[in-house]
Write a structure and sequence with these properties.
By secondary structure, the protein is of the alpha/beta class. It is about 35% helix and about 20% strand.
Length: about 500
Amino acid sequence: MKLAHYIAGAFYADETEKYLDVINPATSDTIAQVPMATIHTLDVAISAAEKGQKEWANIPAPKRSDYLLEIGVKLKEKKEFLAEVLTKEMGKVIEEARGEIQEGIDMAFYMAGEGRRLLGETTPSELNDKFAMSVRTPVGIIGLITPWNFPIGVPLLKALPAIVSGNAIVWKPASETPIIAYEMAKIFDEVGLPQGVVNVVFGSGTDIGTEIVQNPHIGVISFTGSTSTGRKVAELGGYHLKKVSLELGGKNAVIVMDDADLDLAVEGIIWSAFGTAGQRCTACSRVIVHKDIEEALQQKLLSEMEKLTIGDGLDERNKVGPVINMEALYKIHSYVELAQLDGATLLTGGHILEGGDYDLGCYYAPTLFKDVRPDARLAQEEIFGPVVGLIRVGSLEEAIEVNNNVSYGLSSSIYTKDVNTVFRAQRDLDTGIVYVNAGTTGAEVHLPFGGTKGTGNGHRDSGVSALDLYTEVKSIYIDFSGKLQRAQIDN
């Protein structure tokens, strides 16, 4: 199957463009071919977005919401089909793929409601016979550059608030997972979005991604990906004075205190660490455990890890799928080798899975270390794989210090039965998301999603906060006094 770009309300192909194979990481089968856009193709998309946005911005926001409701309905109707597509090209197990589609459904319905708000504010003027208010206005064209690990959930967290706010988008999906974007383009087409409101352009980050960031017709960039690439996006976007939203890496920890429900904690750690084969920005890769219960927690974790079934995500029995490709597989293994050189003790896993069906795909054994130093690379750097390190502490204060002493600040979690500990932790943990008696994953669409420090630059996906990126605030003063009134002078 050859994919095509989606531009100006139609599927667009240029046979002079090169095509890349799309590989199923579970089987190594080629399942599609994706075009690599030229700058000319991108220019066509940007021109379409410019034209479409001018008309779209004049449609009342509640009417724009109607399209989002229809998108949500279409996603719901096609949920199982889309989940299978997602699993085939990304690898995550089918129940997780269904969950990602559900996130898109939730966001469509939630953001549709915001079309009837898009709130500004009114405030008293300091002068007589003068009215003061602010309103939200669209920015114009939004550039979306999105990752392979959540290839539909993340884009919809960005695209839907951008659309309901009156903008047009140019979206570059990850080249590893283009099929789900192609299917999403079909949904945009089926609901009858006006031409140019959504444009999907496949291509390389080096060429097309860079041009999206620096193109003068695109006013906002929303990027999710690695911290190293995020820095380049911030630098280039900042040079062009654009609003740039970065959602980058994480080095998330679960804190387990000595009074925790250990069975509950183990469930949360297993899900947070090994769901999506650890390929989440919110994945748990550190477990900060009180010394008094370290041994008990360790044994329970090992017991539960033995039960994990690993294989093709389309098999409902499997709980852990493959990692995205061979490059990721060997990167993960290099971190495991470094951890042992740093003095960590390998308890289980630590190897590429081989033999039988494993030889067809990219599978890494769920891995657990103990004796991990808080300053070791295993405890400091994002691995993006099914690898977890146990870090021993003696108090809540030490646990919080260890949690905070990394360059990232996305998600953190604490297990405890003490309400005083809960309130101290939620106050002092320096991440954008804090969970109590739950793992490090599970964000809901009606609250802001994002983090501190190296995780991003202060913007948030989802929730009402997402609208801040995609709108400009315009202040309006209406003087009905019939005379000149000078603020700060005549009052």
